[in-house]
Amino acid sequence: MMIVLGVAKNSEIEGHLVNVENTQMLYVQLAKYKNEMDSMYDKMGEMCNNGKLKPVQEVVIGYSYAVQFSQDNEWYRARVDKKDGSKFEVSLYLQTLAEYV
After folding, report:
1. What are the tens digits of pLDDT across the range 5-43?
2. Rounded CA gap, 42 and 75, in Å?
């Protein structure tokens, strides 16, 4: 479920930047749900590492998938932005790579 928040100019909300569509559309995970998000990522990583998820048969541009990041071998959510044969360009959701930024 997505909740649209109108934030007044010069006001603040506590959260984690998740995705940026453009300068007018940002996705923020509210800080009060951080534990739930961490738990979700832990469960996703366990399922990927234990082979409990089926491999994707066809990758679709614009869809989100679990992908393994080569620098730490951890699993993250990513959106496929471009496909060229068997190569893909993806955007990793920002909160997952905060330690690398």
Report:
1. 666 777 777 877 777 777 777 777 777 887 887 888 788
2. 9
> Which domains occur in the chain, in start order?
15-100 (2.30.30)
Closest CA to 67 of 35, 85, 91, 84: 91
Q: Which residue has the tokens 């534990």?
A: 35
HEC-encoded secondary structure of 16-47: EEEEEEECCEEEEEEHHHHHHHHHHHHHHHHH
- What does residue 7 show for φ and ψ, rounded to 5 degrees? -110, 125
The predicted model scores a pTM of 0.58
pLDDT surpassing 50 at residue 97: no
Place of tokens 């409990």: 52
Burial 54-85 (b: 16+ CB within 10 A, else e): eeeeeeeeeeebebeeeeeeebbbbbbeeeee
The residue among 56, 58, 92 whose CA lies nearest residue 72 is: 92
